[in-house]
Design a protein that fits this description.
Elements: H1 2-15, E1 26-27, E2 37-39, H2 41-49, H3 53-62, E3 70-76, E4 80-85, H4 87-99, E5 113-117, H5 129-147, E6 151-158, H6 163-181, H7 194-207, H8 215-240, E7 247-250, H9 251-256, H10 259-269, E8 273-276, E9 279-282, E10 293-296, H11 304-317, E11 322-328, H12 335-344, E12 352-357, E13 360-364, E14 367-369, H13 381-398, E15 406-409, H14 410-414, H15 421-441, H16 458-479, H17 484-503, H18 511-535
EC number: 6.1.1.19
Keywords: Aminoacyl-tRNA synthetase, ATP-binding, Cytoplasm, Ligase, Nucleotide-binding, Protein biosynthesis
Pfam families: Arg_tRNA_synt_N, DALR_1, tRNA-synt_1d
């Protein structure tokens, strides 16, 4: 509607001799008495035309032709123009929500191909609550971008090569040897969580003590079983969290397929690699990094940066137009070197967006719980899901801007009260279902899309306007990669509906008014359900 009003205004401006002027806004006023939409165009033009803004506003209005959208136009204050929209327009909003399953889908993305990589936690242990925030954000962002009109593929990058994998295999093998000897002792180095002991027991059950005198074979078997066990655990936890991936991409495959060597050779040919102290370096300082980076060590082993370079080149070679990486906040220093590598290949670094997810603190019974992956003292995502469920976990992770740290209050997430945001929103949806059950028990024959002209109460109009606003919210959330805007919107819509429910008798003696209000309520439920589906949260019919 904002675009429609802008178009009407631009046509009127041309008639008063103003062309190509777009330095004004069209917005929904905070107070309903100021119309459905308002613009500051006359105030902005006053500086250009050097005339009184109210005089300009009157002239603009005089050239607005009769149409089916605008019912009346008024001038307010120093020169704001307020538009009051035809009732039919609002009725059509409800009809569209009720009848069109794709009403909230947009074409904003123009089907651009997006590769969204997120979580990608090192397979050295179970997912913890920090990974959960990145998982909720990444999965929801993928759903959001699809609704906004992008073609999205999701990917998990498995770091199954390098020193951490060596440490994983060594840790499991050491625990295996301790189990054979019958005595568990502290590990001085490596991963010390209970899950390492569990994997070692699995190795012992399958191979007995046969690996004790063959360290090389013992390491390989421990690493293979350990990687599979941990990846299975990660995938199971993510599935329970309603997070799935289109592709699981192995870092190791970049080496076996020769893609790392090929990527480095391209950089060498372009003059961006040099040798120093026996190592191979990338000239990342030429692209804004604080220092050059090693891609191949003096001992011949590759750094993680080398495989990351090859991985991002591979993403582009697969034809993706937009790359989005979701990383932890501790990877901030890594951004310039990755973007620099893309520039070195002759690609635009604007194709790559790196989103940093800030830390999350878990609060239980008023106390903050710390975690350390290597020490094994961490709270797993699985534990959190068992405590609060996937709905509350996802919603709580998503209701804050990913750029800000936040405290996850587990007691609040478990509460069944209006203080719990996810409960509050879901209850609004369930409340609509209870209205229909009540109507059915009274033998009220619901007729979809009828009697909408009877929705004349101010709160009813506010609800319709709020639902109409959802497309704009979806577009903004997709454009800024900020799924938390959806949670804010849903809480506002739920609040409006709860208010309406308490202040308005929906099931009345007048069946036509009842039918109109049930139509409105059903549209609200559909909107809430659609919004929750973007978040990956259920919309229960009973609570």
């Amino acid at each position: 509607m904002e675009n429609t009003i802008r178009s009407i205004l631009e046509s009127s401006l041309e008639k008063i001799g103003v062309k190509d002027f777009d330095d004004f806004i069209v917005e929904v006023p905070k107070r309903s008495e100021n119309g459905d939409f308002a613009t500051n165009v006359a105030l902005k033009l006053a500086k250009v035309l050097k005339k009184n803004p109210r005089e300009i506003a009157e002239k603009i209005i005089s050239f607005i032709e009769d149409n089916d959208v605008i019912e009346k136009v008024e001038i307010a204050g120093p020169g704001f123009i307020n538009f009051f929209i035809n009732k039919k327009f609002y009725e059509n909003i409800i009809k569209n929500i009720l009848e069109n399953n794709e009403y909230f889908f947009l074409d904003y993305g123009n089907n651009k191909r997006v590769l969204l990589e997120f979580v990608s936690a090192n397979p050295t242990g179970p997912l913890h609550i920090g990974h959960g925030r990145g998982a909720a954000y990444g999965d929801t962002l993928g759903r959001l971008l699809k609704v906004a009109g992008f073609e999205v593929d999701t990917e998990y990058y498995i770091n199954d090569a390098g020193n951490q994998m060596r440490m994983l295999g060594d840790s499991i093998y050491e625990r295996y040897k301790q189990l054979v000897r019958g005595k568990l002792e502290d590990l001085k180095e490596g991963y010390r969580g209970e899950y390492i002991i569990d994997i070692a027991r699995k190795v012992l059950d399958e191979y007995g003590d046969s690996l004790m005198n063959d360290p090389e074979k013992g390491f390989e078997i421990c690493f293979k079983i350990g990687l599979q066990e941990i990846m299975d655990s990660i995938e199971n936890d993510l599935t329970e969290f309603r997070v799935t991936f289109d592709r699981w991409f192995s870092e190791k495959s970049l080496f076996t397929n020769g893609k790392v060597d090929k990527a480095l050779e391209i950089l060498r040919e372009k003059g961006y690699l040099y040798e120093k102290d026996g190592a191979l370096w990338f000239k990342s300082t030429e692209f804004g990094d604080e220092k050059d980076r090693v891609v191949k060590k003096a001992d011949g082993s590759y750094t993680y940066f080398a495989s990351d370079i090859a991985y991002h080149l591979d993403k582009l070679n697969r034809g993706y137009e937009i790359l989005i990486d979701v990383w932890g906040a501790d990877h901030h220093g890594y951004i310039n070197r990755i973007k620099g590598a893309l520039k070195a290949f002759g690609e635009s670094d604007e194709k790559l967006t790196i989103v940093l997810i800030q830390m999350v603190n878990l609060i239980k019974e008023g106390k903050r719980i710390s975690m350390s992956t290597r020490a094994g003292e961490f709270i797993t995502l699985k534990w959190l899901l068992d405590e609060v469920g996937a709905d509350a976990a996802r919603y709580f992770y998503l209701m804050r801007d990913h750029n800000a740290q936040f405290d996850f209050d587990i007691d609040l997430a478990k509460s069944k009260s209006s203080d719990n945001p996810v409960y509050y929103v879901q209850y609004a949806h369930a409340r609509v279902n209870s209205l229909f059950e009540n109507a059915k028990s009274k033998n009220i024959d619901f007729k979809e899309g009828e009697n909408l002209e009877l929705l004349t109460e101010p709160q009813e109009k506010e609800l319709i306007k709020k639902m109409y606003e959802f497309k704009k919210i979806i577009k903004a959330a997709a454009a800024h990669l900020e799924p938390h805007r959806i949670t804010y919107y849903l809480q506002d819509l739920a609040a409006l509906f709860h208010n309406y429910y308490y202040n308005t008798k929906i099931i009345t003696d007048d069946h036509k008014v009842t039918n109109a209000r049930l139509n409105l309520s059903k549209a609200v439920a559909i909107t809430i359900r659609f919004g929750l589906s973007i978040l990956g949260v259920n919309a229960p019919e009973k609570m």
